[in-house]
Design brief:
Layout (H helix, E strand, L loop, with lengths): L13 E5 L4 H12 L3 E6 L2 H11 L3 E5 L11 H6 L7 E4 L14 H29 L2 E6 L12 H21 L4 E8 L8 H4 L2 H9 L13 H8 L10 E4 L7
Parallel strand pairs: 1-2, 1-4, 2-3, 4-5, 5-6, 6-7
Helix pairs in contact: 1-8, 4-5
């Protein structure tokens, strides 16, 4: 048997990571680059992207784009392919959580949440799927959530989008896995990111969340590394249509 660590080697692969300017998206982009991939980071904030690119080095390229703006996505496939060639790994980590109660949700807030969290992962994957089909190899890793299966206060729009991600991931697998493209999702628990700033700024609330896990702590950004590499590499070649909860056992209790 060859060295099994080679299953996780991404040398020669090209990855596109949305939300690469901060949080789990930035961590994902850095991990894929460290594993050998050439990575195109995508986000709205050009300055934060430039910081990530400078930190990562020659394996990194950036595309500043407001993905929730449909007009801004025109020609995006060419922009993503320009630095290193057509991406064969797509990680959709960009997201928004307006944290509005059911009585407070506006049509505008609903639309932007569903557009960025659910529509963008699909249409970006649809955009890149032809290149993956041509190679006969592709990896799509969506970001689901605890709210893919749980209802949280103030999370009706976000929860609807993340429940949709779970089914979208299964549907992507059905559509594209015959061509060598796997589609899976990571469901993070509570990690310290911009989206969860309100949670971690309240020590009592953060402690209550940690106590609800089987492990007894909230997530560290490094906890995403192994699951992501597994789903983005040859190590998961017979795994598709699955949602891997990386939540310390929160959803197991």
């Amino acid at each position: 048997m060859d060295n099994p660590s080679g299953l996780f080697d991404l040398t020669g692969r090209v990855a596109c990571v949305t939300g690469a300017s901060s949080g789990l998206g930035r961590r994902a982009a850095s991990v894929l680059a460290a594993a050998g991939a050439q990575v195109v980071g995508v986000a709205r904030r050009a300055e934060a992207l430039a910081d990530w690119q400078a930190e990562t080095g020659e394996r990194a390229a950036v595309v500043a784009c407001d993905l929730a703006d449909r007009a801004a996505r025109e020609g995006l496939a060419d922009r993503l392919s320009a630095p290193f060639g057509a991406p064969d790994i797509l990680v959709t980590a960009a997201g928004i959580n307006t944290r509005q109660s059911a009585d407070e949700v506006t049509e505008e807030g609903w639309d932007v949440t569903l557009e960025l969290n659910l529509s963008v992962p699909f249409f970006l994957a649809q955009m890149l799927a032809p290149g993956m089909k041509e190679k006969g190899w592709g990896r799509i890793v969506n970001f689901a959530s605890l709210q893919s299966t749980r209802a949280f206060p103030g999370g009706i729009a976000y929860g609807a989008s993340k429940g949709g991600i779970a089914q979208l991931t299964r549907a992507m697998a059905e559509a594209w896995s015959p061509y060598g493209i796997t589609a899976n999702a990571i469901g993070p628990g509570f990690f310290p990111t911009e989206l969860t700033g309100a949670v971690f700024s309240d020590p009592d609330r953060a402690a209550r969340n940690a106590a609800q896990t089987c492990i007894g702590r909230n997530g560290d950004l490094s906890d995403i590394d192994g699951p992501l590499l597994f789903l983005a590499s040859n190590a998961s070649s017979y795994v598709t249509g699955q949602i891997l909860m990386v939540d310390g056992g929160f959803t197991a209790k």
